Amino acid sequence: MRFFCCALLAMVFCTVSFAACAQSAPQTSSQKADATSAPLPPREDETLADTPPVITHHQVSVGGKVLKYTATAGRLPIKPESGPTEAAIFFTAYTLDGEEARTRPVTFVFNGGPGTATAWLHMGALGPRKIKLEQDGGVPAPPYVTVDNQETILDRTDLVFIDAPGIGYSRVRPDLTKKFYNVMGDADAFYRFIRLYLSRYQRWRSPLFLFGESYGTTRAAALVNHLTDNYIPVNGVALLSVGLDFATLMPGNMNDLPHQVIVPSYTMIAAYHKKLAPELTADLDATIKKIEQWCATDYAQALALGNALPPEKRKQIISQLAAYTGLKPELIEENDLRIEPQVFMHNLLKDRKLEVGRVDGRFAAPMPQSNAHEPFFDPAMAAMFPAFNAVMNDYAATELGYKSELPYVIWNFEGINRAWDWGSGMAGYPQTATNLQSAMAKNKYLKVLVMEGMYDLATPFYASAYTFQHLRLEPDYRRNLTFADFKGGHMVYNDAAALKEMKRALDAWYQEALKAGK
Hints:
10-stranded mixed beta sheet; two-stranded antiparallel sheet; 18 helices; alpha/beta
């Protein structure tokens, strides 16, 4: 499985390596520095140039109200107090005209991957302009166009969309990729960007929010704690398609938890494709609650017993799992009661010779013949990369006036995702849930919004619920958590109805967060 996307953690699941990095040998006292062979200090890289930002003025009609705003597109240098620039981070900021910018809320927004640009949230969900998609989130025929985004949150908060180092128009000095392409190095780069942005644009008095999607949620949890530890206060963190604890997402020989928490997502997708019995779909919300309870009890116990599971109990579990997933009992037996996402994707609609999507299980398509040499195919994403890439390139150059000879990199699997350093295997599965818990414990006013798409197999909604059920917080602090599930996929906002629901949830959450402590 090597094809991941946008906000996606997807590829991470197969490419994470937990092997500890070998350490270079320390220099002994007998080794003497040779001044004639000492390396020259690195020179400024032209691709990291700190050019003046491009400022343009626009307006958008939202709910019958005209919003006039200023867009600023440019790059900020990430550099030490002395020495050359280490990275240049591209951003697009939208500030509402006629407001006191110094005290208006500002939200820093980013997608994930790691290795994907923020074109997804920018052009699909939160910005004042968005790509025009079909109502259910499907991609229309090219050429692609942009339209006013009726669901933008610019009416609630100023927005700063950030492309991670090495992605979009952001760049990293080639000899420093290892410094940035890891969980905490990445979070530190975002911290340094935010600190510089607050100073350069005089936003230190603004209520500060973070909005991350997929690996962006992994980053947001690490980042909010890093900001807090460096004395930058944060009012709220919005998380979409959550991946805070990879133990809930990456199955292993000794880790059955991901098999357990993904079943409700299988149920939602099977119901959509009419693969469940009528009695299960008559009240789907009640069915999902029942299945979550079954997953946490009978199914969890059966998986925990392993080969010690009695035959009669095994037969019962197989029957129930077949009923809840729409898969054949023989397939479940063949896979030892543990259904990987790829197995579900390939077999749910096998009778129709269709593969269902990973990031949105409502989508299905025939498997391409070339797939014999491609380990992974997701029909929900096949058209999205070209569409969002084309729209972002056109929008940056025409509407924002940002012209660059650098290519806009929307996704870099080989250079970033596959090269990502997840840390030593001695530390177990990657996770930043404890970072979020730490930040919440340090700031009793910190509000967190957790949002999930119910047709998403990359970050299943019950996996997210499980993570937060096990987050160690006292009741007074747990009240700072808000949850919202939507009838959408990994990119919830691609679906027009789900985007409207997400906008309503965000409106209510921002109002609540800004009242905290008053």
